[in-house]
Amino acid sequence: MTLEGRNFDVITGLLALPAGYLVMKNKRYAPKLILAFNITGIVLLLNIIVISMLSFPTSFRYFLNEPSSAEVAQFPFILLPGVLVPIAYSFHIFSIRQVLIKK
Predict the structure, then answer these.
(1) Where does 27-75 have alpha helices with state H?
(2) What single-letter DSSP state applies at residue 97?
(3) Which domain covers residue 43, as residue numbers?
(4) How many domains does the chain have?
(5) What percent of the chain has pLDDT over 90?
(6) Burial classification of residue 57, based on how many CB atoms lie within 10 Å of its CB (0-12 exposed, 13-18 middle, 19 or more buried)
(7) What burial letters (b/e) apply to 15-37, b meaning 16+ CB within 10 Å?
(8) Is residue 2 in a domain?
(9) Long-range interactions of 76-81: CB distance < 8 A, separation 24+
């Protein structure tokens, strides 16, 4: 769950500026681009959630490299799964909902 390895959710942040520019530049394809961007963001968030679950020190731990996900259970890092991930999912879902309602 660093910038190395299978953590691809950083791509969502990197794609946000070009996607926003393209949405503002080409209004015709904006709904499709917004849907594609948000679905990509949700899939990448799901990816990191699965990786973190499989890194947690339990009997079904798959990724044995250190540090394990137990570090996320300490204070300021607990805000990542407890606050920031639900906010990210919510904003992606609200954005998708807004595009679908306008259609």
Answers:
(1) 30-55
(2) H
(3) 10-102
(4) 1
(5) 35
(6) exposed
(7) eeeebeeebeeeeeebeebbeeb
(8) no
(9) 81/49, 81/52
Mean pLDDT of all residues in 84-89? 89
Over residues 42-80, the pLDDT tens digits come to 999 998 888 777 777 777 777 666 665 667 777 887 787
d(CA 56, CA 38): 27
Q: In the structure encoding, which two tokens stand for residue 90, read together? A: 């919510």
- Name the average pLDDT for the chain: 83
Q: Is 92 part of any domain?
A: yes
Tell me which of 14 and 65 has the higher pLDDT: 14
| Residue 87: both structure tokens together | 């906010």
